[in-house]
Structure formats: structure tokens, C-alpha cells
Amino acid sequence: MILIGAALTIAQQQWANMGLGAGIFLALYAAYKFGKLGGGDVKLFTAIALLNPVNDPMFLFANTILCGNERNNILLGVLWNKILQERNKLE
How far is the C-alpha of 91 from the C-alpha of 78, rounded, in Å? Predict the structure, then answer.
């Protein structure tokens, strides 16, 4: 996907798009090196950035943050439910 996105970006001469894809790759690669992100995530976000013809980086990051927050809310709900069930068993 990255190669297809890079080829299409070069063919359409969208140099800002190529720069943004490279910037996202470098930023996420740093997060990968510090163990905060998986290598597949780095490749996926880079491919999305390169394949997206009209890049709005805030759209990508905002959706990532919203999805991460929603996942955390679900996990907290499950954890809270387990705590309440254990509490009811003790009573």
C-alpha cells in the first residue's frame, strides 16, 4: 500500500502529500523505537497518509485519538463491571 500510495503521489505531483507521508512515517517510527507503537501501525498510518489524496493530518490524528478513547471507555466499563461483580459475590 505504501508503494502504491507513493507511486500515485509522485504521478499526481502531490509533493506536499509525499512530505506529509514521510513526516508521519518518521514521527511514528520514533514512537515505534520507544516501544509505544507497533511496526504494523507505522506502516498502516503511512499508507493511509500516502493514499489519501487530500491530506488533513488533523483528521487522521483526531480519528486515532477518538478511537483510542472509545476503546479505553469500553475497557474501563468491562473492568468496572468485573469489580462490581466481585464486590457482590463478597457480600
Answer: 20
With cell 500515485, the residue in question is 8
Residue among 45, 6, 1, 54 at smallest CA distance from 26? 45
- Residue 56's pLDDT is 64
Q: Would the pTM of this model clear 0.70, i.e. be above it?
A: no
Rg (CA), the chain: 19
d(CA 4, CA 76): 39
Phi, psi values for residue 12, rounded to 5°: -90, 0
Nearest of 37, 52, 61, 40 to residue 6 by alpha carbon: 52
